[in-house]
Amino acid sequence: MIDTQFLITCCGMLSAPHVSFPGQETFKGQLFHTARWPKEPVEFGGKRVGVIGNGATGIQVIQTIAGEVGHLKVFVRTPQYMIPMKNPKYSEEDAEAYKSRFQHLTERLPHTFTGFEYDFEHAWAGLTPERRREVIEDCWNDGSLKLWISSFAELFFDAEVNAEISGFVREKMRERLKDPKLCDALIPADYGFGTHRVPLEQNFLEAFHRPNVEIVSVKASPIERVTPTGIQTADGTIHELDVIVLATGFDAGTGALTRIDIRGRGGRSLKEDWSKDIRTTMGLQVHGYPNLFTTAVPLAPSAALCNMTTCLQQQVEWIDDCIRFVRTKNLKVVEPTKDAEDGWVAHHDEIANATLIAKTNSWYLGSNVEGKPRRVLSYCGGVGAYRQKCNEVAASGYQGFTMN
Ligand SMILES: Cc1cc2nc3c(=O)[nH]c(=O)nc-3n(C[C@H](O)[C@H](O)[C@H](O)COP(=O)(O)OP(=O)(O)OC[C@H]3O[C@@H](n4cnc5c(N)ncnc54)[C@H](O)[C@@H]3O)c2cc1C
């Protein structure tokens, strides 16, 4: 037992793998989650490999191993919008030029919408259709997340703007895929661009043109179980495999902490509380859990919608200042009031529910984990606005927090 006055959790927003297929333990080949990649090199050469999932990690695995494996089956449930990543090789001069902008970057990043250098600079309504298209093309050609988080903010709120940008991305994906069957399997049709996490890729779509790569669409015929020799889908087919890679994602935002038996006042359990309603005060503390500080948990941008390094730095600085404040006042305990937490949850929900994200199903809302209470996990008001609110609380002497 280790006694501590304060507990600061830095357990990660995407660190608790989400894996749940019956029969996994019976598989005779090699099976692992992308977040638990074996330490020794995995031998894919000539093997029959199945990858379950085509999100951020699935994409990286598929595009990397497609040319190496004997046969690859990709089990796709939800097609993803994606942006081709440029990933240029930087020279020493490039690196120096970048470093020379350090001061500018440290001043700018904390105040943009997502904590990246770029920010939303255009208003959809003010531009002609031709100019909008130019902006979209420019952002696309940047080979980064720019199209998502610095083209038009309206894509998060306005269904018509979102439909137009989604149409653009579908068109780009169709140009590369050519085969109508691949287009049906890999291009999203029932949700809008940017309402799920947008992965970056390199030659991911082209991997499906290889004769050794096959798609198994598991929307209509879901995976039922893992058998000793492969994966069984609901239609009764057993897909025989030597290696299974689970690119099935994470119990995001809450999973790392609910796997620890965290207890608060009167023995209340965080796991039980969050199994009913996922609540925090600014993602920094939870009412009922005095002296517990959190990073990268729900109801802050650091739960998914930001450049994490920018957001986490801001959170640890706020926590550091708060603890110093408690100590300089010769106090021992800090905890948000129920009213303050109610206020933050209401503010968070008001913004989140105005977005198109709230109308979708993805790990952004916890809908990948059965029984997880539904709420947009990430604060959608922007990194700059969030930071300002946190600073205001600190400047007010931590209004909304009881200290004794
Ligand atoms: C596929 C993927 C793509 C991502 N893409 C981006 C991106 O593009 N941009 C971005 O900003 N972020 C991205 N992230 C988010 C990424 O998680 C963060 O950028 C960064 O890793 C967060 O740092 P962290 O220290 O909060 O958490 P982590 O790096 O996840 O570290 C958490 C640590 O806590 C440990 N831990 C957890 N529970 C326990 C426990 N019970 N006991 C002991 N140790 C524990 C874990 O083992 C881990 O070492 C991505 C994450 C994933 C998985």
UniProtKB/TrEMBL annotation:
GO terms for molecular function: monooxygenase activity. InterPro entries: FAD-binding_Monooxygenases, FAD/NAD-bd_sf, Flavin_mOase-like. Pfam families: FMO-like (PF00743). This is Acetone monooxygenase. Keywords: FAD, Flavoprotein, Monooxygenase, NADP, Oxidoreductase. Belongs to the FAD-binding monooxygenase family. Its EC number is 1.14.13.226. Its cofactor is FAD. SUPFAM superfamilies: FAD/NAD(P)-binding domain (SSF51905). It comes from the Bacteria. Transmembrane segments: none annotated.
